[in-house]
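Subgroup meeting minutes
Present: P.N., E.W., G.H.
Scribe: E.W.

1. P.N. recapped why we're keeping a running log of single-chain structure predictions: easier to compare across weeks, and new members can see raw inputs and outputs side by side.
2. G.H. added today's entry (299 aa).
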Amino acid sequence: MQPAPAPARPRAMRVLARREARIALLFVLPAFLLFLVFRFGPTLAGVALSFFDYSITGEIGWRGLDHFQRLIGDPLFWRALTTTLLYTVFAVPIAIALSLVMALGVRRAFRGARFFRSVFFLPVITSLVLAGAIFSWIFSSSGPWAVLMEPVGLGRSWLTDTVLVIPALIIIGIWSRFGYGMMIFIAALQDVSRELEEAALLDGANAWQRFRAIILPHLRPTIFFLAVIETTFAFQVFEVIYVTTGGGPANASYSLVYLLYDQGFKYMDYGYAAAVGVALFVMTLVVALIQNLVLGRQK
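Output recorded in log:
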């Protein structure tokens, strides 16, 4: 016998559901409109400003693509772009790798696990201005880092050296961000089947084999997420540079956001600063799309 068809949903219930949906939308709509205005409004205004000259007195003049042509021919822009890319290329993968190592070390419950998690996460909530002031002393010629590096011939102030300033900023950036990735990895590791790991252990798989065959495939979506987030943060590096080096020495630590800051708030060239911001946004978007093509397909 064929099963009896399910009774059709009464028309009154469908009407009631649609009415409730409209009421819910009505309550959500004001907050949604405010989000659109204050989230995307400044972005659209910044893009529009990049095509104009704007002075603090309110005078506006059309410039078209002049700011972007100036950007292409500005050696300071290319210097800032090189600095930003160098910082991103090294800081992001090292921070993610260190986050994963720390997460694997403290993911299991043991005496003191919560303490170590808290200590490792503490730099994330520490003010970057305060951290920059402390690291200015650490990397000074009389600081502990110079004493530690003296045996290998690097016992000098890293923040005033044109070659060593980027590695110093990378160390600070990794220190300030790896705790965030660690917590994300710990959350993802909770879903890894312990029974599967124990079965692999009984089959004779060593720690590396278990990590490569069981843990790493499970963490690929998390790695992709962190790669996008950390790359975005790295492209926007500013506070630490402002406090520790001021873009020096000889513009060796001059980043794109620092260029935007100087043009907009120091020289009051708002149109050109907006063009720098648009270029930064486009580059961040392109890198995110490339990461999606390379890592996203493995999710």
